[in-house]
Amino acid sequence: MIQIIAIHMTGSEHPQHIELLRWVQTPQPGAAATTQPQDATRAEMVTFVRNNPGQAFALSATDNTYALLEVVEAQPPYVKTQPDSTTRDNPLSLPRF
């Protein structure tokens, strides 16, 4: 599995979008990372999530909840977390780099 740990935004003040996603490999949500952080473009992450459903997630920094990523079929496609009861595990809530 991979955990998204930070994002890099691009664009003007409005609209901004996620350009890069920083991730680490981990055996399961909440476990220690098994790789050094790496960066993926939005398109690369879309491809990963399509090819590996259920294997990418974002983790809340405050309460250890997590949500799996899914692809939104827009132009261009992008990833978001599956809906749940909190926004703390949303990629837009992650630290910026």
Description:
It is a single chain. This protein is mainly beta and 97 residues long. The protein is 10% helix and 38% strand. It has one helix and six strands; from the N terminus they run βββαβββ. A six-stranded mixed β-sheet has the order 3-2-1-4-5-6.
For this entry, give a set of tags.
mainly beta, six-stranded mixed β-sheet
Beta-strand share of residues: 35-45%
Determine the structural class based on helices, strands and strand pairing.
mainly beta
Number of strands: 6
Low-pLDDT stretches: none
Order of helices and strands: EEEHEEE
Radius of gyration: 13 Å
Largest sheet properties: 6 strands, mixed
Cα shape:
globular
Q: Please count the helical segments.
A: 1
Q: In what order do the strands lie side by side in the largest sheet?
A: 3-2-1-4-5-6
Classify the helix fraction into a percent range.
Answer: 10-25%
Amino- and carboxy-terminal Cα gap: 22 Å
Oligomer: single chain
Mean pLDDT across all residues, rounded?
88
